[in-house]
C-alpha cells in the first residue's frame, strides 16, 4: 500500500507475539510466532527454512496464495501491510496458516499487541507511470498512474448480485477491511470437504453463501465479500515488497490475476517501465 502520511518507513514490531488456530483446508492446528526484524523484508520460517514473502516465491494461486510449501499466506500479509509493517519474521508450526475467524482481524490484533515501531530507513514507493491491464475470462485487473493509493473493486456473485467497494486514503483498514471474512457457497464447501479440503471450514470461521438466498450466517458488512476481495488483493500486492502509488480497478479478480499484476509491477520496476521517484 502507499502510506504518504508517515513517509513509508521500514516498520517492524517491538516484541514477540504469537497466536494459533486451525488451517481452513487441513483442519490441523497451526501456530504463528511474530518476531521483530530490521531486514526490511517479511520472511516466513518453517522447519528451519526461510521463505521470503515476495512474488518470485509464489507457487500456487488456487483457493489462496502459496509461497513455497506455505498455504494461505494472504490474510496475514494483508494484516501486516494494513498496519504498514514490512519488516518481520513469522515462525510457523504448520504449512497452512491458521484461518482464525476467516478475516485478518485476529492477525491485526496480535500485531498491534507486539507494538509496531518505525525504523529509521524508508521504503521508496513504486510510482506507476503506465497503464497495465490484465484479463482472464470475465475477470480483469487494471493499474493506472495515481497520486496516492486506491482500489476500486467490483464483484458479482450468484445470490448476491453486484457489489462495489472503494479503498482509498480515507478508508480505515482496521475497521472497514480487516474484519471481512473469507467466504464460500454452502454447496461448494460440502463438495470440497468430500475431497479432503475445507476440513476446518465452519459457520464460525467463514461467511457462508447460498446460491438462492445469499448469506447463510450473518454478514459483518452488507458487502462483506467485496471487502474481503480487497483484503486478499492487499495481501497479494504486498508481495511486491514496496509501497505503490497507483489506482487499481479490479473486476472479479482473484489470486491468479492479482499475482500476475504484482509480478508485472515488480518486473516493471526493475525494467524501468514503472519508475521509482
Ligand atoms: Zn481471502
If you had to describe this structure to a student in words, what would you say it looks like?
- The protein is an alpha+beta fold and 277 residues long.
- The protein is 23% helix and 33% strand.
- A hairpin with a 3-residue loop joins strand 16 and strand 17.
- Helix 1 (74-82) crosses helix 2 (105-113), helix 1 crosses helix 5 (224-237) and helix 5 (224-237) runs parallel beside helix 6 (255-271).
- The model is unreliable at 271-277 (pLDDT under 50).
- The structure holds zinc ion.
Radius of gyration: 18 Å
CATH topology of the domain at 9-124: Ribosomal Protein S5, domain 2
Strand content range: 25-35%
What characterizes the major β-sheet? Answer: 6 strands, mixed
State the low-pLDDT regions, or none.
271-277
What's the helix count? 6
Helix content: 10-25%
Spell out the key features of this protein:
single chain, about 280 residues, alpha+beta, Ribosomal Protein S5, domain 2, six-stranded mixed β-sheet, five-stranded mixed β-sheet, about 25% helix, about 35% strand, binds zinc ion
Summarize the structure.
It is built from six helices and 18 strands. By secondary structure, the chain is an alpha+beta fold.
Amino acid at each position: 500500500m502507499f502510506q504518504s502520511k508517515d513517509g513509508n518507513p521500514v516498520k517492524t514490531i517491538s516484541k514477540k507475539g504469537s497466536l494459533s488456530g486451525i488451517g481452513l483446508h487441513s483442519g490441523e492446528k497451526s501456530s504463528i510466532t511474530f518476531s521483530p526484524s530490521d531486514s526490511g523484508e517479511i520472511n516466513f520460517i518453517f522447519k528451519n527454512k526461510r521463505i521470503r514473502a515476495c512474488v518470485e516465491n509464489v507457487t500456487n494461486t488456487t483457493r489462496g496464495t502459496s509461497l513455497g510449501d506455505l498455504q494461505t499466506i494472504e490474510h496475514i500479509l494483508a494484516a501486516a501491510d494494513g498496519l504498514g509493517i514490512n519488516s518481520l519474521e513469522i515462525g510457523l508450526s504448520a504449512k497452512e496458516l491458521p484461518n482464525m475467524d476467516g478475516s485478518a482481524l485476529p492477525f491485526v490484533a496480535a500485531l498491534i499487541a507486539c507494538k509496531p515501531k518505525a525504523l529509521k530507513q524508508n521504503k521508496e514507493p513504486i510510482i506507476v507511470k503506465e497503464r497495465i491491464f490484465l484479463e482472464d475470462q470475465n475477470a480483469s485487473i487494471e493499474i493506472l498512474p495515481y497520486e496516492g493509493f486506491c482500489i476500486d473493486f467490483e464483484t458479482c456473485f450468484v445470490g448476491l448480485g453486484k457489489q462495489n467497494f472503494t479503498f482509498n486514503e480515507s478508508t480505515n483498514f482496521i475497521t472497514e477491511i480487516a474484519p471481512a471474512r473469507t467466504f464460500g457457497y454452502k454447496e461448494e464447501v460440502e463438495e470440497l470437504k468430500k475431497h479432503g479440503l475445507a476440513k476446518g471450514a465452519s459457520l464460525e470461521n467463514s461467511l457462508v453463501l447460498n446460491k438462492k438466498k445469499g448469506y447463510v450466517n450473518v454478514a459483518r458488512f452488507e458487502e462483506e465479500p467485496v471487502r474481503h476481495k480487497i483484503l486478499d488483493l492487499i495481501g497479494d500486492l504486498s508481495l511486491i515488497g514496496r509501497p505503490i502509488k497507483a489506482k487499481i480497478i479490479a473486476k472479479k479478480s482473484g489470486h491468479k490475476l492479482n499475482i500476475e499484476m504484482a509480478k508485472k509491477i515488480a518486473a516493471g520496476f526493475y525494467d524501468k517501465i514503472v519508475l521509482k521517484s
